[in-house]
């Protein structure tokens, strides 16, 4: 039976997790240690993607645009590394404000989930832009891309101000903890709608590569380079960690809806959330490495961009999708 308290207030969270007893005199809380480990993996994955994208850019040349799938993974890594940095700041402020919460801790607590919300909205938005370019032949400039990023970031901060996105691990760091189950129900509905939208786009893109291909490639429009199906599949496969990440957030919110009172059970769901939200960076790097290997098997050495002849025809099919300008 789910009971909801429709009243909504925000108060400062205090650590109250399950503690492991090592001996009659020594006990510790394993959740912060798991948090530090998860953040480290998140940052490591993001740095790996940044390094590989930088190396690829150096190989193909400064004047050549990055492949579509590489830029897609790069943008996912940006949103994940921003959230990881925010977690580190929150964790430090929690330690320095453990006796009496300070102003800095309260301020960071208000905006702590902003970058996580930015990840939710931005990755889905990038996927939709990919769909428009590939399936609808819409040519969106970088200027529009930056405007979209600014709008999404502003929306994430506004949601944080009004407490509409309180789905981070509440008891670990400086966070303004909501009182009332209605906010968790709103979170579930909002996250589910975004994920369904992103999943629908993914199915459309995969269907396009499987059944809507002509001349062994998909053309974005007459003025742009063609894109090979494997490049689109690489971009779509980069979303697998994203879906797993937000399914873990949904599980955590469902647990809070049931108002679990047992500390060990609460800690279990908190650990699921911590591992889930930090899976984005490491999972993105894992998929990027796999996609690089698959691309190498399909097209050979993908580091050299080829030029067009006088008739503007691609001399080598490797450039299809490799010299694609996106985002």
TrEMBL record:
Keyword Transmembrane (UniProt): yes
Coiled coil (residue ranges): none
Keywords: Membrane, Transmembrane, Transmembrane helix
Origin superkingdom: Eukaryota
Residue ranges crossing the lipid bilayer per the database entry: 31-51, 72-95, 107-131, 151-167, 182-210, 231-255, 267-290
Name of protein: 7191_t:CDS:1
Organism field: Funneliformis mosseae (Endomycorrhizal fungus)
